[in-house]
Design goal:
- It is a single chain.
- By secondary structure, this protein is α/β, with parallel strands linked by helices.
- It has 4 domains: about 130 residues, Orthogonal Bundle (N-utilizing Substance Protein B Homolog, Chain A); about 35 residues, no CATH class; about 50 residues, no CATH class; about 190 residues, Vaccinia Virus protein VP39 (Rossmann fold, 3-Layer(aba) Sandwich), CATH 3.40.50.
- It is about 50% helix and about 15% strand.
- The protein is globular, with a radius of gyration of 24 Å.
Length: about 425
């Protein structure tokens, strides 16, 4: 029996709307359970991710096609059909017929009628997007747009929303601890250096598995490199990566340390440590040790005044990486920022006593919101006059052409 990917896409999206699963985990689960071929899995992923990313705009089109009340199952089926026709370039008959065939008989007539109307009025329908509010056209919650309007210009926000609607590009960093990495990577005709980011490269799809297995590369976004670079760990130092899993920044710091010294990697969840250890071992990192510690709790006495440098990559809103984390824009609420701010300050308070008298600390997020970044650091420093801000940087898509991030370097006076 032929597999109808639209059926699985609709089912996965209905599951996603319940709020208990991430989109990528749902795609993985459905692909595994249905034993999908790679081509079918790719189509399933494209539809699920695309519908979530373009949800507001799709709902605008659906409201025109069906002027009246519809239930959630019909709305989801129409989102899937409209997305295929207007965004994916799938042949009209395949997009409509497969979508209609993939749903239960009781709603086929309504969905078929709406999608046939879409085919007849496609050009006129697409023109209606030009006059939409920017947050609807680029499918972001209105409250989030309003929030950014307080800190950024309309032009900057438009660039940001457009960025979040683009597909991510696979980027990776060379492992400088592996001498053959540069030569092997540059021999590939499909690899391109990433402009403005030494040691980073792009690949049209996932890089060859052998490169990863041999520890030549680590898949990483260039926006994440600033934290380790700002901390600038040196060989023979004792460094803490406080929120380390899965290990991207840990591996970068170990390379900067030339595999000399001590790198303590902690995480609050013991279940994340095996993957962290695997990534460290795979890149031939010999100086790392792992421990379980929740930094919302005070540090053990043995770590007080113990570290030359500390990296705190704290939990945050993810507003700088909404292009990649497509679930986040629909899951976050204004109240989350208040909750996260309290958590971030608590982690800072517990980590600060662990800096040596002449030590340093880098606070890092993947957020573009001042409340989690510049404003939070300013408030923290009023409580800790023994510390000073040496440098801070806000990375944004509209200024840096990468995902967003924030880093601040603090030192004892």
């Amino acid at each position: 029996m032929a597999v109808n990917i639209r059926t699985h896409a609709i089912d996965a999206l209905l599951d996603w709307q319940e709020g208990r699963h991430y989109a990528d985990s749902l795609v993985h689960r459905y692909a595994r359970d249905q034993e999908l071929k790679q081509e079918d899995r790719n189509l399933l992923n494209a539809i699920v991710v695309g519908v979530i990313r373009n949800q507001s705009l799709l709902d605008h089109y659906v409201a025109i096609l069906r002027d009246g009340k519809i239930d959630n199952e019909v709305r989801t089926a129409l989102r899937v059909g409209v997305y295929q026709v207007l965004f994916m370039g799938i042949a009209d008959h395949a997009a409509v017929n497969e979508t209609v065939e993939g749903i239960r008989k009781g709603i086929r007539g309504l969905v078929n009628a709406c999608l046939r109307r879409l085919l007849r009025e496609k050009e006129e329908l697409e023109k209606t997007a030009d006059s939409l509010p920017i947050n609807v056209k680029y499918s972001h919650p209105k409250w989030l747009y309003d929030r950014w309007s307080k800190d950024y210009s309309e032009e900057q926000i438009k660039h940001l929303l457009e960025w979040n609607q683009t597909h991510t590009v696979t980027t990776f960093r060379l492992n400088p601890l592996e001498p053959s990495a540069q030569e092997v990577i540059e021999e590939s005709k499909r690899t391109e250096p990433l402009e403005g980011h030494p040691e980073f490269y792009t690949f049209p799809s996932l890089p060859p598995r052998q490169w990863m297995d041999d520890g030549l590369i680590y898949i990483q976004d260039p926006a994440t490199q600033h934290a380790a670079a700002l901390l600038d760990p040196k060989p023979a130092e004792t460094i803490l990566d406080a929120c380390a899993a899965p290990g991207g920044k840990s591996t970068q710091m170990a390379a900067l340390m030339q595999n000399e010294g001590t790198l303590i990697c902690t995480d609050s969840n013991e279940k994340r440590l095996p993957r962290l250890l695997e990534n460290l071992d795979n890149l031939n990192i010999r100086i790392a040790e792992t421990e379980v510690h929740d930094w919302t709790e005070p540090a053990p006495e043995k770590w007080h005044s113990h570290f030359d440098g500390i990296l705190l990559d704290v939990p945050c809103s993810n507003t700088g990486v909404l292009r990649k984390r497509i679930d986040a824009r629909w899951r976050m609420t204004p109240e989350n920022f208040t909750e996260l701010r309290e958590l971030q300050l608590q982690i800072l308070e517990n980590a600060a006593p662990c800096i040596k008298p002449d030590g340093r600390l880098v606070y890092s997020t993947c957020s573009i919101d001042p409340e989690e970044n510049t404003q939070l650091i300013a408030e923290f420093l009023t409580r800790h006059p023994e510390l000073e801000l040496v440098e801070e940087k806000q990375v944004t898509p509209f200024d840096d052409n990468t995902d967003g991030a924030y880093v601040a370097l603090l030192k004892r006076k």
